[in-house]
Design goal:
This protein is an alpha/beta fold. It has two domains: 19-220 and 393-401, no CATH class; 237-346. The chain is built from 13 helices and eight strands. Strands 1-4-5-8 form a four-stranded parallel β-sheet. Strands 2-3 form a two-stranded antiparallel ribbon.
Length: 408
């Protein structure tokens, strides 16, 4: 399953971006937020400039992006809004008293911003509502009658509108004024994106009427990208002193064994281990005195596999003498090769993987270099060109069957 972790309207911003891209970004941020960033005519941006870009980008994200996570008890009142008690003072006596005010939820908050933006700008910005784990709550109940506005026409506007209940109706009248016509319908600049893992246990089933208003795109758990920094040191029968492997290589070898008999919700995902946990494993593998060290390889991964995945059939993955966690932990502490503990076959080391990937990587770098030079040359020809207005990247109302989706 993939997750909507962030929203970068201008794409990924690193320390080495092309001059024309950087210039367009800084001009756009200055126009949107009044933040002046001095342009430096070199490939590497300074730490100060990067911090300014990060600040401006975060401001941009917070303005046009809202993220919410559904859970079992999540409700319509949490998502849309409801009356909540507020402490105040009596106008006559000054004594403290309890009053009730309507507090909008994340859906109404971003809806109001999108409606105002479209009314105030000839070219409105796009707004994105990201819903994590949409099937961990009763999604149709959370949306209530608003699920009807999810039907979109060819222009991206809701085909149908709904009349809100009294409390919400009053709030929208006070908040939007003349922009509110007494009904709710989604504007074309408001997108909804959601993630879900349909293979998870103890989740709710989305009913067909709700599901048909979304487009689905399946994301394979084994297709997720892992950066080169995420490596793990393992001791194997081939390399008993230890070798560095890509974490991606190791987890996919485990998944290859599991996929024959187990559903995907039991497989090992990219971020089963945080980067800090991989560093803990690597430190453990290289230490002589491990008495006070934590080893997530044993205490998290192998414990999960043995107690939660293959508990009823440990022989599906573990070799005979390692059918309990005590034996597994003792074996790792004694430097027993990992492929003697679990049946994963021969693993390709990081060194071998890099050698195999080197020709393709060199070709990609050459192509990127040519494109970068062409972009700089084009930018030099168009010094007087107006930079693009900062506009949120195109996003789609979607739900993920473990991934991303598309327009309704």
């Amino acid at each position: 399953m993939s997750r909507v972790e962030n929203y970068e309207p201008f794409g990924s911003i690193g320390e080495n971006i092309s001059e024309d891209t950087f210039k367009a970004l800084t001009d756009a941020y200055e126009k949107e937020f009044g933040i002046k960033v001095d342009f430096k005519a070199n490939d590497d941006t300074s730490q100060t400039v990067n911090k300014k870009i990060s600040k401006a980008q975060n401001d941009f994200i917070n303005k046009y992006f809202t993220r919410v996570t559904f859970y079992e008890d999540y409700s319509y009142e949490s998502f849309v809004g409801c009356y909540k008690p507020v402490k105040g003072a009596d106008e006559k006596t000054g004594e403290e008293k309890l009053t009730y005010e309507f507090e909008p939820g994340p859906f109404i908050n971003i809806y109001v911003r999108a409606v105002r933006d479209r009314a105030q700008n000839e070219k409105p910005h796009n707004y994105l509502l990201a819903i994590e784990e949409i099937n961990r709550a009763k999604a149709a109940a959370v949306f209530g009658d608003l699920f009807q506005v999810l039907d979109r026409d060819n222009d991206g506007n809701s085909e149908y509108s709904v009349k809100p209940e009294t409390a919400l109706d009053k709030y929208l009248k006070e908040t939007l004024g003349d922009l509110y016509d007494g009904t709710i319908s989604l504007p074309s600049n408001l997108y909804i994106r959601a993630t879900m893992n349909s293979a998870d246990q103890d989740v709710y089933v989305l009913d067909s009427a709700f599901k048909r208003r979304w487009q689905f795109k399946y994301m394979d758990i084994n297709s997720e990208h892992i950066s080169e920094e995420r490596t793990i040191i393992l001791k194997t029968k081939e390399f008993p002193e230890g070798k560095e492997y890509y974490w991606d290589t190791f987890r996919k070898a485990i998944n290859a064994k599991l996929q024959k008999k187990y559903e995907e919700d039991r497989w090992i995902g990219s971020w089963f281990f945080k980067t800090s946990e991989l560093k803990m494993i690597n430190a453990y593998m290289g230490a002589k005195d491990r008495s006070n060290m934590v080893n997530p390889l044993a205490d998290k991964l192998l414990t999960y596999l043995l107690q939660d995945v293959v508990r009823l059939r440990p022989e599906d993955l573990f070799h005979n003498e390692y059918r309990n966690i005590s034996a597994v932990r003792s074996a790792l502490a004694a430097n027993t090769p990992i492929d003697e503990i679990i049946d994963i076959g021969k693993l390709k080391t990081r060194e071998d993987a890099d050698k195999e990937a080197a020709p393709a990587k060199a070709q990609t770098e050459d192509k990127n270099g040519e494109e970068k030079q062409a972009a700089v040359t084009e930018a030099a020809k168009q010094e007087t060109a107006v930079p693009p207005e900062p506009e949120a990247a195109d996003a789609e109302q979607k739900t993920d069957n473990g991934g991303s989706g598309g327009n309704t």
